[in-house]
Amino acid sequence: MQRCVFKENEDSLCRQIGNPEIPQLSKNGDIVLGGIFYFHSSWKNRQETYTQNPLPLECMSLSFRDFQFAQAMRFAIEEINNSTDLLPGISLGYNIYDTCRSIARSIKVALALNNADNVSSTSEEPCNRPVKVQAIVGEGSSSPCTAIATVIGPFQIPLISHFATCACLSDKGKYPSFLRTIPSDYYQSRALAQLVKHFKWTWVGAIRTNDDYGNNGMATFTETAQQLGICLEYSVSFFRTDSTEKLQKIIDIIKASTSKVIVAFLSPRDMEVLIPALSNHNLTGYQWVGSESWIFDSQIAAVDKNHILDGAIGLSIPKAHVSGLKEFMLDFKQSQSEKIQTECTGHEDLTGVEHSFTDMSLMPIINNVYKGVYAVAHALHSILKCNKTCNNSILQHIRQIRFKTKEGEEVYFNENGDPAAKYEIINWQPEENGIIGFATVGVYDASLPADRQLNLLNKTFIWAQNSIEVPVSVCREKCPPGTRKVLQKGIPVCCYDCITCGEGEMSNITDSVTCLRCPPESWSNKRRDACVTKEAEFLSYEEIMGILLTTASLFGTCLTAAVALIFFRYRKTPLVRANNSELSFLLLFSLTLCFLCSLTFIGRPSEWSCMLRHTAFGITFVLCISCVLGKTMVVLMAFKATLPGNNMMKLFGPTQMRLSVLGLTFIQVIICVIWLTISPPFPSKNFKEFKDKIILECALGSAVGFWSVLGYIGLLALLCFIFAFLARKLPDNFNEAKFITFSMLIFCAVWLTFIPAYVSSPGKFSVAVEIFAILASSFGLLICIFIPKCYIMLMKPEKNTKKNMMGKG
User: Fold this and answer.
1) How many domains does the chain have?
2) What InterPro entries does the database record attribute to this sequence (predicted)?
3) Is there a single domain that holds both residue 134 and residue 217?
4) Residue 56: what pLDDT?
5) What SS3 state is found at 783?
6) pLDDT one-digit tens code per residue, 487-531
């Protein structure tokens, strides 16, 4: 029986449905609809140079799938004719033609339908008069639809396609009468790109059919993919009639590629050509992402005998059911008006027969044909209900209709003649019997907000080679935290380089395009993936340098105190009394303060320590130098007073000496007060000296104030040195001016050296230099002025006499 009904040659079906020259189904009615399908999937020109047939083509390779579509159209019309609610009293007829996948034939059929020209038809009933169709249902491919819509568009005859998805057909300027019951590839291409992006496949290959369907669909996918950061390693096209050499080039490109994901925007016939080629080269391990034309086609799965496409994922039209349609198709009987083969009775039962004609896997597309016929019927019903003022253009009414099928599915068209874009996400999952099952693993609804359009269900996915792990397809692994992406000219953006962030920069996310600069108080860690607080650096008491300077300061303080005790014990001896004991004790006191003030430079800077360290240093040193200057003046005045008629000592007595020391020191106090009042020193953070450290230091506030303090000290030191130098050769067995001269030489040398060293020393070392200068100059004064005297008092007491002091011993 199966051999009788589905004999595998084209004569079998041709004998059932009409002349093998133009297979056609036809039925008269009050209103006639046209149907354009291809019952054959290929054709060739007849050899005759002349024929009366206006379409001299020889059809080849039966396509039972499109015969299913024609049967769906017949079923819908029969159902409408039997309805009392829709078009009551009006009968619908049909003229259904086979185009054999020929675009030229499609155009001629469309023109014939428009011109009420019966194109060599064989009807179920005698045709008595020409009929002009009100609408055409079909074609199933984009390229023939663009041709037909261009031709019949000016006549305002609706063309409703069930399977033409090219986004180009949404252009109402070019195709004003085209409508469809399947979503536009504009949405499918974007959905595929979002699906690829969801699984983090950024490096993919692409294969497309070289026609309007494949080229336009892939163009939209490519544009969306680029916006989502997806790169195409290659994008190739082919057509089923291309040479084997071109197909081999595509195989070689796939072999040489590094991407593991292939997006296939191909028609079913092209997939039937590509799959054997893939199998011959054993190209397994690739994750296929398919368009709706083949991803849920059981015949394509049957062709893939080597399971090259196992784990494929893609978009399909949502599952559908039309009650009574399957039974109608299986009840197909051979026409009694035709010549029947002797082996057929005309009453064969197709129930249980496994064949492409009985396969209902394409029910979603069959349902699209059903909805298209009902859309025309509802538009006609709307026209018949209108009064004379109603617009009688069926095209306008179809665009405005909105109804629900008997299964509850809502049907309408938007301004572009497209339906709502909804898809199911299908995953090819092998079953126990070796047959591929189409598991629904998600949905896509273009009417929802962008972040909610793609919704994957919590189901197990099967990937390439039956793996349950999501495959990886990237040109370059993600840049880890601590690096940034760098693009290279002429190389796809997905094939970037990962460059480590620079010092003081960080990135804490993967695939960062920039490195962020750390805040001033932070610095990047070694991994460059975080900013850590910089180490605060200052001269502390705990570090070795701080300990050494503190020890030197305390040692100087103790040494000064010891000298003071020695002087106090021998205060009545000629040596102490001859050297102005009052100024000596005041000088020792000032030296003690000088040693101690160096301690204010050590430790974490604070507001009070910053103001104290410079002012205390300035005032104590001026007090010290004032005392030394006083001692020098005393020596000079003493020897000047020995000259006849000289009364200098009366002008520079003890009172004047105290006032001079106090006055000179008070001037420094005034300078410091002005400095502190106008712009005092303050603690600051220095970020410039070291990149990874914060230098805590005391800012000068006013540089003029600081250098005024130092300048005043330098001026007094210079005067002291000049006076001591003048008194160095005065007659005396123990001339103190010599020692003052040496001490001032050391003092001036230290502070002249201090200036460049202070300016060039970084961070805490500048503080150490200042402390060293204070201690060095203080030790110089202490040692040069007081140690020789202590030596005489302790080691050479015999020289500590008045005679010896006067040079008479």
Assistant:
1) 4
2) ANF_lig-bd_rcpt, GPCR_3, GPCR_3_9-Cys_dom, GPCR_3_9-Cys_sf, GPCR_3_C, GPCR_3_Ca_sens_rcpt-rel, GPCR_3_CS, GPCR_3_vmron_rcpt_2
3) no
4) 56
5) helix
6) 888 888 888 899 999 988 999 998 898 999 998 888 999 999 999
DSSP string, 489-556: TTS-TTS-EEEE--TTEE--STT-SSPEEPPTTEEE-TTSSSEEEPEEE---SSSHHHHHHHHHHHHH
DSSP string, 571-596: TTSHHHHHT-HHHHHHHHHHHHHHHH
Could you tell me if residue 652 is inside a domain?
no
Cα–Cα distance, 393 to 194 (Å, whole number): 40
Structure-token pair, residue 563: 């000298």
The HSE-up count of residue 11 (CA atoms within 13 Å, CB side) is 5
Distance, CA of 623 to CA of 553 (rounded, Å):
18
Whether 170 and 72 share a structural domain:
yes
Containing structural domain, residue 39: 2-45+57-182+361-408
Q: Which long-range contacts (C-beta less than 8 Å, at least 24 apart) are formed by 440-447?
A: 440/319, 441/313, 443/318, 444/191, 444/194, 444/195, 444/315, 445/421, 446/183, 446/187, 446/190, 446/191, 446/420, 446/421, 446/422, 447/420, 447/421, 447/422
Sign of CA pseudo-dihedral 183, 187, 192, 194: negative
Q: Within this chain, do residues 602 and 735 fall inside the same structural domain, yes or no?
A: yes
Residue 439 CB coordination number (10 Å): 18
* 658-663, long-range: CB < 8 A, 24+ apart: 658/582, 660/626, 660/629, 660/630, 660/633, 661/583, 661/586, 661/623, 661/626, 661/627, 661/630
Which stretches of the chain drop beneath a pLDDT of 50? Answer: 1-23, 48-55, 117-131, 336-337, 339-342, 808-809
Pair 607, 509 in one domain: no
Whether 693 and 618 map to the same domain: the answer is: yes
DSSP state of 306: T
- Report yes or no on 350 lying in a domain: no
pTM higher than 0.90: no
Q: Give the torsion sign (CA, 135, 140, 143, 144).
A: negative
Query: Which pLDDT score is estimated for 3?
Result: 43
List alpha helices for 353-449, DSSP H. 363-385, 394-400
SS3 content of the chain, % helix, strand, coil (to 5): 45, 15, 40
Q: Is residue 594 assigned to a domain?
A: yes
Q: Does 509 reside within a domain?
A: yes
Q: Are residues 163 and 210 in the same domain?
A: no
User: Burial letters for 366-380: b for 16+ Cβ neighbours within 10 Å, e otherwise?
Assistant: bbbbbbbbbbbbbbb
Residue 49: per-residue pLDDT: 44
Which single residue is written with the structure tokens 């003649």?
A: 417
Q: Which helix (H) or strand (E) holds 336?
A: none
In the block, residue with structure tokens 């019952």:
39
Judge if 216 and 152 occupy the same domain. no
CA separation for the pair 191, 201 (Å, rounded): 14
Residue 262 CB neighbours (<10 A): 24
Q: What is the CATH number of the domain that holds 312?
A: 3.40.50.2300
- For residue 517, the model assigns a pLDDT of 92
